[in-house]
Amino acid sequence: MNLKLRVWRQKGPEDKGRMVTYEVTDISPDASFLEMLDVLNERLILEGDEPIAFDHDCREGICGMCGMMINGVAHGPERATTTCQLHMRHFKDGDSIDIEPWRAAAFPVIKDLVVNRGAFDEIIQAGGYITAPTGTAPDAHATPIPKADADAAFEAATCIGCGACVAACPNGSSMLFTAAKVAHLGLMPQGQPERSSRVISMIEAQDEAGFGGCTNAGECTTVCPKGIPLNLIGRLNADYIKAVSGR
Amino acid sequence: MTSFWTEGDAIADTAAPDGPVETRWERRQFSAKLVNPANRRKLTVIVVGTGLAGGSAAATLGEAGYHVKSYCYQDSPRRAHSIAAQGGINAAKNYRNDGDSIYRLFYDTVKGGDFRARESNVYRLAQVSVNIIDQCVAQGVPFAREYGGLLDNRSFGGTQVSRTFYARGQTGQQLLLGAYQALERQIAAGNVEMHERHEMLELIMVDGKARGIVVRDLVTGEISTEVADAVVLASGGYGNVFFLSTNAKGCNVTATWRAHRKGAYFANPCYTQIHPTCIPESGSHQSKLTLMSESLRNDGRVWVPKKAGDHREAADIPEDERDYYLERIYPAFGNLVPRDIASRAAKNVCDEGRGVGPGGLGVYLDFADAITRLGQPAVEAKYGNLFEMYARITGEDPYVTPMRIYPAVHYTMGGLWVDYDLQSNIPGLFVIGEANFSDHGANRLGASALMQGLADGYFVLPNTLGNYLASGPYQKVDANHPSVVEARAQVEERLQKFLSINGDRTVDSFHRELGHIMWEYCGMERTEEGLTKAIGLIQALREEFWTRVKVPGVGAELNQNLERAGRVADFFELAELMCVDALHRAESCGGHFRGESQTEDGEALRHDDEFSYVAAWEFAGTGAAPTLHKEDLNFEYVHPTQRSYK
Amino acid sequence: MAIESIGFMHWTNSDGVPTVKFVAVDTSAPAGKAARQKAGPGRPAGARKPAVGRSSARSTVVLKIIMAVSGIVLVGFLFAHMAGNLKIFVGQESFDHYAHWLREIGEPALPPVWALWIMRVGLLVSVIAHIVSAAVLTVRARKARPVRYAHRPKVQGSYAARTMRWGGVIVFLFIIWHLLDMTTGTVHPEFDPAKPYANVISAFAPERWYVTAFYVLAILAIGFHLRHGIFSAVRTLGQQSARGERIAKTIALVLSVILVAGFLSVPFAVLTGLVS
Fold first, then answer.
1. Residue B120 belongs to what domain range?
2. A61 and chain C: CB distance < 8 Å anywhere?
3. DSSP codes of every residue in B251-309
4. Alpha helices in B375-423 (DSSP H)
5. Lower CB count within 10 Å: N or C terminus of chain A?
6. What is the CATH number of the domain that holds B344?
7. Whose CA is closest to A163, among B79, C59, C61, B393?
8. What percent of chain B has pLDDT over 70?
9. C42–B190: do the CB atoms touch at under 8 Å?
10. Residue B530 lies in a domain
11. CA B564 to CA B73: how far, in whole Å?
12. Residue C249 near chain A (CB below 8 Å)
């Protein structure tokens, strides 16, 4: 396949940045999107150009390191797919593809397509955990958990923290990310003691980090590679109302 | 042949107590010196890596009150490659009442490791396994449960009891997020200083002790030196020496290799696990291979056509023309034989020209029977995400056409040599998780890696590290200490060298070529001839690398090619050591299969009389023959037998 | 006393027309990057406690809750308003009597017009709360997403959701105009405070087609606004089940359609001569 790429190039945080056009040729439809960029980078290096910096690691859709806007859609056109798992067979020969970094004030660009997502770690630090220091925990069977709750908690816990939800949100909101963690821990009996303090602290942390508010527009869930559902935000809101009203 | 290495003094693990294996850990914990809680915050511990081992260790040490500095090359500790582990985690809970026990897990692991692991370490691992599950449940890890609300278990990769706990096909992710959340809690509490996007490039040694590391900030390129009272390496395995592996692209050997160059012994580097159920390569663009959990083998049946060169579609091959070769050759274990056996069997049938898919490098993993027997919804509930992953990558629907699988490098049992305390031969340098060599012998059983990583990080290291720290205090070291200045200068010089070569080949092209050599000659089957040849090829390629590599950009910026150049340079040296180790071990055991050492029907043949030892290699200089130190292995409880899964 | 008002709040011409001023916007919304700090020894252990109070009162979620509650109050008003409007189909007497009754609610417990004013104040507070929250959230959202994408994607979520802000502005401008038209009569050429029925008929006179057009546009904007707004409010107040979501979406759609149909029926009836 032959493709025309327009890629965001930005030397560093202070650089203004711009879209640069590249032609890539002879790409296998079985190649992944990142492998296509690998091919381009190999060529750029040999031609004496700067290769395009992009984040990636596991390349199997679970680490959450990769992510870019592909034709304006976070992680590209396939639903429930990370950029590394997007394959070129979903594009047509001759296509023109625009590639941009995640855009959000809380995710400043470091270089090219690489952004700083440390704000997500800050939200987790604020309360995205269960306080259970290593030691003699009760036997794992001490507290049975209804399968439905355990399964729902698992679904929420599959969030990979890639940031696509924020990138897609017209308000730059991290509500889906926060809601997923609040739901995961709030569904487990072990998570109950800190349930109220957790939701308040995490919301505070996401506001502090500069994320916007949720307008229930639903862009986040449509691009989420793990399909985290929007109704978890409703769950978060319910927990929050309960927490602030002190019930 | 001995010109490839020299033999040095024998070594021994002096940290493990003698006596009954059941009480060794308890006695070691009691004999270990303790650090007064009030003094802990004055002691600094560096932890490199934030996977299951490093993340859990940093969190636990932070909880204990030490001042912890944690480093990872990813942008968040949550992204370490432990996150990709799919299948599950073993624990000797015997919740299924199927005859499991700590002793049986110990027995299975020693046997599964093909009698090349230490009994003391393995027994402790089995003991601690029970606590891991309790700890993880307390943290809120959403393990799979049954309708009664209790934890579900499955049988996994070569065991006949159901002792594997799991969370769909994302067990590693859920366990890592548990450790990550505990770590973030300690970061918020001020006990752990987290340094993301930082890579360790050198170990700092002062008076023969590990006292710090040199790190590069991957965003700004700034080189800094960090000193501490002890250094813990939890930097994972070195499977990426093969270029194509199931590891993440960033996984590398640099942290452990730099420590090795400073004197830490590298043990059993040739023990590599080739995982049987990966998605086959699709072309020259391939940048990594994707593993699918071998839990798939619980319900999938492996087969190839009986006839060589049969290119019909799977559906067109009638039942009696299919060879379910694992069930045929190993009737007792069938499709559940250990990984090494399943991998080599796949290679054998492909070598016979019976492979399927592009290039004939693949075998079928067929769920048709399972779908008929259990119904598609049940299969979907068990393996849904794996099927989706397969469909996404290959563009084929595994509910309709059988999956194609092929072995790929997955896990490396070798690593830095450590004693029972997980301390290397360098005082103050501790090595945990996949980065050490200790618990899996020559072959790791399924669902044991997560167990070992968390055992080391949550329960073992926090107890043994205190013993070392309590033996101090050690002299104060600052950034102006000559050893620190020298280590830093070495790093800067090396980075400058990469940038100045300005040749005509990319880092990746060298890495790919190195990977080909390793897969060809140091992969599933190794021979003296092939390994000798490989060593020559690697040396020549290494020299070429240092004259022809082209690394664009500068050092003081985010420069991903500069990062890779350093990693690949270390892989070159490691690759050579792996080949030397594989060459010296003229027996087949576990993940190491020597063509010269097999039974008449092609099974691995171990030589306990000659090779029942750990090969711990000492660095003797770049290109110089390494020194071999042997640690004899004694089996008081599980007596070596040739493995038979027939 | 002359009958001079119908409806709950703004179809009146009594003294002191409620006005809604654009209220200053919270500019202390935290900046993203600057707030980033490496956690380290400086961050005290156990500093995170449930902080109900100043900081959570300004949280984005609290602002959303304020929007949801005030929005629901305003939806309730719109239904009452629409019901009042529909009395025009019963006849002039009924319509005018209804408008008169509004001023007498609460009598004799309350003096005349007090109840009406209490309601007006309630509505005013709701409108202000709704708009101020929306403005603060909009500013924060702009700050949170300062750079636009070069490739503007098509909307994947809900269109109604993406038009909330512009729709809200249109509705707000309409309300101001509508008060001037039907309550104070400032822009109404034939306004007579004593004849609400006649005022309605003359407001939608064919020669004032642009008034009718603006009215129709605003009502449609309200419909869109509520289609997402009602659903969103329910989610903000904690609705979380999949079934609840379907129900909320259906209710939002049905209520929006009823409101639009109800409000549009009056100008339609006037234009077609059903009411004259």
1. 2-271+413-470
2. no
3. --SHHHHHHHHTT--EE-TT-EEEEEEEPPP-STT-----B--TTHHHH-EEEEESSTT
4. 376-394
5. C
6. 3.90.700.10
7. B79
8. 99
9. yes
10. yes
11. 12
12. no
Chain B: residue whose CA lies nearest to A36: B285
Neighbours of chain C (3+ CB pairs under 8 A): A, B
Write down how long chain A is.
247
**B315 shares its domain with B246:** no
- Cα–Cα distance measured from residue B233 to residue B456, given in angstroms and rounded to the nearest whole number: 11
User: Per residue in B547-582, pLDDT tens?
Assistant: 999 999 999 999 999 999 999 999 999 999 999 999
pLDDT at A156 over 90: yes
Rounded mean pLDDT of chain C?
80
Q: Are residues B524 and B433 in the same domain?
A: no
Location of structure tokens 């891991």: B132
Residue C199, helix vs strand vs coil: helix
CA gap B471, B138 in Å, rounded:
33
Q: Which long-range contacts (CB under 8 A, 24 or more apart) does B224-227 make?
A: B225/B479, B225/B484, B225/B487, B225/B488, B226/B46, B226/B69, B227/B44, B227/B477, B227/B478, B227/B479, B227/B481, B227/B484
Domains delineated in chain A? 3-110 (3.10.20.30), 117-244 (1.10.1060.10)
**Residues B12, B145 share a domain:** yes
CA B179 to chain centroid: 18
Rounded CA-CA distance C81/B178 in Å is: 54
Per-residue pLDDT, averaged over C66-80, amounts to 96
Asked whether residue C138 is assigned to any structural domain, the reply reads: yes
What's the CATH number where C125 sits?
A: 1.20.1300.10
Sign of CA dihedral A32, B246, B55, B570: negative
Q: What is the CATH number of the domain that holds B496?
A: 1.20.58.100
C194-C199-C201-C202 Cα dihedral, nearest 10 degrees:
130
Numbers of helices and strands, H then E, in chain B: 19, 21
ipTM of predicted complex? 0.98
Is B233 a domain residue?
Answer: yes
Residue at B252: amino acid letter:
N
Which one, of B577, B244, B164, lies nearest residue B410 by Cα? B244
| Same structural domain, B167 and B61 | yes
The C-alpha of A199 sits at a distance from chain B's nearest C-alpha, in angstroms, of 15
Contact A184 B170 (CB under 8 A): no
DSSP secondary-structure letter at B117? S
Supply the mean pLDDT for chain B.
95
pLDDT in tens, A189-236: 999 999 999 999 999 999 999 999 999 999 999 999 999 999 999 999
How much is the pLDDT for B272? 96
Q: Which of these, B377, B80, C145, B642, lies nearest to A215 by C-alpha position?
A: C145
Q: Which residue has the tokens 């023959």?
A: B625
* Cis omega (within 30 of 0) for bond into C146: no
